[in-house]
Amino acid sequence: MILHIVQYSATQDNALATCLRYIKPQDTLLLLGDGVNALLLQKWQHALADTQICLLEQDVVARGLQSRLGQYKQLSQAEFVHYTLTHAKVITW
Question: pTM above 0.85?
């Protein structure tokens, strides 16, 4: 079980696309920073439909996207740290 972290915008970087080539169904994808913006685009909503996704809450709030991304699990900083400890590996793309 791997925690994949993507922090760059999917429109400006290929990190998310590369991550999706390697992610497995049991893995978790954490979007933070500009990475949360990917879920505003239908292309990425469909591509990530079968992926366990969570977002860093402070980045969603900082961008004023709470209502638009409210359906996705959002992690506090403490939960983020917990996730890094409970997954066998952490890969930052």
Answer: yes
